[in-house]
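In this supplementary section we document a worked example of the pipeline. Step one takes a protein sequence of length 342 as its only input; no multiple sequence alignment statistics are reported here. Step two produces a three-dimensional model, which step three serialises into structure tokens for compact storage. The input and output of this example are shown verbatim.
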Amino acid sequence: YIIFAEPEPWRWGKQTIWDVDDEQLNDNGNFDIEVVYGDDHGDSFGSAVDAKHDANGDSVPDVLIGAPNYDSVKGSVLLIFDPHQINGYEAHQVADSLDQGLYLTGEDDDLLGYDVAFVDVNNDAAADLALGAPGASGDKGKVYLLENSEFQGNLGSHALSSYVSVELSGEDAGARAGATVEEAGDVFGDGYGDLLIGAPWADLASTDDVGVAYLLAANEIVGSTYDLGTRLVTEIVFEGETPNSLTGSSLATGDFDGDSHLDVAIGAPGNNLVYVVYGPFVSSAVRELADADARVEGEVSESLGHALLGVDMNNDGVDDLLVGAPGYNGGQGRFFTLLGGL
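The serialised model returned by step three reads:
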């Protein structure tokens, strides 16, 4: 699929899904286009999207969409199981009327759906969900993990609380953990998928909004709650450098140096920086990003590092890093492709 998110048209938000195959690409743009709309004015539907995995076992990739401002910032998430013949419908209708999705709503001030990701934390080949809610618990923030077995076979609209397997909570008020959530792949090399979580507004040593990111072996968590500050499982904490840098606003993994180990890229758009830390990662540690293995520095006010993506663009077997800088030239914006070998 090619997916375009438009979270602000009329502030309802909408999601455009193009189902593309080779034949359609050669047919002068004759795409199968599906447009799904947010439920209400101000929902910001489409603020976060993922479509990398199959959650219901039908061998068709499913689509996960966040609407963090739904119902006075409770937030909501729509999981579309079959993204066909849904054109023109609103989010809840896809779940309730078409029976093609699961619509989950958050609690007061959660901002559920600020970021979303498919993950596989238990290595069963069935996609689990990681849902960011940076407004939860007085802006400490949370990430809700939903194991596939908790929601498999369910359709319609429901409260999120009915399906949560584990709640991951931020360390401090105002840190907003869960503002970014990313599937990390098997970074620790134990056969299980790992999880990256950003808390861009975290304070360090009384310094405001430095930001941190957590790399977590989620499969090691025992119980239904976990505080990111306890370090009870294998966990790497990446700490930013300077105030207002918003480190952890974007996250990506890939083998950027070509050594067959996954590396981690972390954006700090408040300081126009992207950090790259090379793997392998073996045990728990605190890593100060001032000592990162590589860094990319942008121009003043271009917000370099607002968005990141690790992907092998030139098919040479080494992952490349795409970096967004939306503030460039007074908001004109630009992005870079940094070829592997960083």
